Amino acid sequence: MGLTIAEKIIKNHLVQGSLERGSEIALRIDQTLTQDATGTMAYLEFEAMGTPRVKTELSVAYIDHNTLQCGFENADDHAYIRSAAKKFGVRYSTPGNGICHQVHLERFGVPGKTLIGSDSHTPTGGGIGMLAIGAGGLDVAVAMGGGAYYITMPKMYKIELAGKMPPFVTAKDLALEALRLLTVKGGVGAIIEWGGEGIKDLTVPERATITNMGAELGATTSIFPSDEKTEAFLKAQGRGEEYTPLCSDEDAVYDKIVKINLDEMKPLIACPHMPDRVVAVESLCDVTVNQVCIGSCTNSSLYDMLKVAALLKGKTVAPGVSLSISPGSRQVLSMLIETGALNDMVAAGARILECACGPCIGMGFSPNSGGVSVRTFNRNFEGRSGTADAKVYLASPETAVACALTGKITDPTTLGEAPIVAMPESFRVDDRGVLLPAAPEEAAEVEIERGPNIGKCPVGSALENEMTAQVVLKVGDDITTDHIMPAGAKILPYRSNIPFLSKFCFGAVDPGFAERAKATQNGVIVGGQNYGQGSSREHAALVPLYLGVRAVITKSFSRIHRANLINAGILPLTLADPADYDKLTLGEGLTLSDLHKGIDEGKLTLITEKGEEIALVADYSERQKKILLAGGLLPYTRDN
Ligand code: MIC
Ligand code: SF4
Prior knowledge:
Number of domains: 3
Bound molecules: alpha-methylisocitric acid, iron/sulfur cluster
Structural class: alpha/beta
Strand content: 15-25%
CATH architecture of the largest domain: 2-Layer Sandwich
CATH class of the largest domain: Alpha Beta
Strand order of the largest sheet: 21-22-23-24-27-26-25
Number of strands: 27
Shape: globular
Largest sheet: 7 strands, mixed, barrel
Radius of gyration: 23 Å
CATH topology of the largest domain: Aconitase, domain 3
């Protein structure tokens, strides 16, 4: 039987298990990345494991999320990460050097290698033919220490492109089309390979836009072949020797094949507040726009920025519209300066922001009350922008410019000729923004800088055999990690201060939750479908752990969040019959007996205060069972 691209990479990195889909596999990890919002905790966890140096081929710590420094907190986190990176053998990408996924693609991504990152958009690396997967910080810490990364062998999906994209239809529209067809749950448990004639023309940055938003489909990762376009990109980055061709076999087997005819595509836009609420831009033309934001790890490449500059050249942003542009990396920014493109943006009225995540994670640039913001980003969850009642739409850079120029949601095809931008033969390579770690023989002398903002990671305790608990929260479908543990400028600086963060847990959903859960100390959360989608932040598990949450019972979970709950020692359980969701009520007492046997057998029975019995699925691998019994991955790793 032939193999898919992902299966070939997995086969080369398998340390345990087989290619049988649905079984647990362990992978050798070549590269890791962290960013600053998840990185502080990840390096604290790495320290707690007691390994002196990373064992990967390459590990990079990026500073890109918490770049607003309104007090000492973020700067303290950066100093901690910089010193930990220096000591443990990790490269440190300085603030201002760029967004982790953009910089990693430019400078470090290698076809055929494995990468895990403590950020859900790590699959961006699939654009260059890597097997790149988002994970919780603790999983990344384990991989840095040389441990394998465990996942369920995913199903294999293929999206086949035929035809040619019409003018003003872009890679972003393709990512949105995939979301329209498959929804935010459509990729769960699968790796999506993009193929067909239609991919031949797509450059690496365009492919990376598409693999980036595979995260919104819930996919384990997405991947493109490594071909002439990949080779050209690597050569232009001065890394031609890192190229290897990679494609799937003719007779590779897919669980699902989706076909998209590019000729029929139109510019698309995702409406508030979910990335899969996708419609044609032309259907929304009367909506007034207050703000436009261009950038993020989805659309901040030089390719995107040059198109934006060409469309803005000689024009003026509509009165009343605030346009921000954040180039993805210092390489992109300096090339925009060199080519004069930056001036075209500035002259048109754009507000140029730092090369960082910025508005995407609510780090500044929150819209006005009830405002409409059109963004080239990947997520438009309610409240994520920092303004609770803002309406955020997601679109391509071309559509974003059209909206900025007219002040209304506007189909970019009305702008006239589509800009044609060529990829440069060589990028401006300057790696001074990445600091190298200390040599191994000097590492012992490096002092770790621990300012007052650097806290500790909470650790769970061994699982008892009987649990009496109480439903402390009941929520519906599609709860995101932004609901569970919000981000934004006010809270992000406290990612290593779990007691402080806990005050905001589920704040926008139920302001009384944190106090109630903390007082109960044996809480159960009840959720609907796709619970925990979105970010990889393990804080969405660590904070509930701190608040005494012992189990989460849902109709279904997102992959990374479920793994984070297990790592934290919280039981993720699913309802054997989803209709039983209606039987569980807030405040109700619950009993789970014979837990150890139930976990071993994969099924548990819950007894409610009313005396009803509810069957639960406790479907864990042998390793996950041991982790849960030990009270989480840290105690498990320590004990083993
Ligand atoms: C996000 O886009 O939500 C983030 C911020 O990049 C997160 C990571 C985090 O919460 O720190 C992600 O996608 O994993
Ligand atoms: Fe940063 Fe936004 Fe990308 Fe997350 S999605 S890594 S916040 S740019």
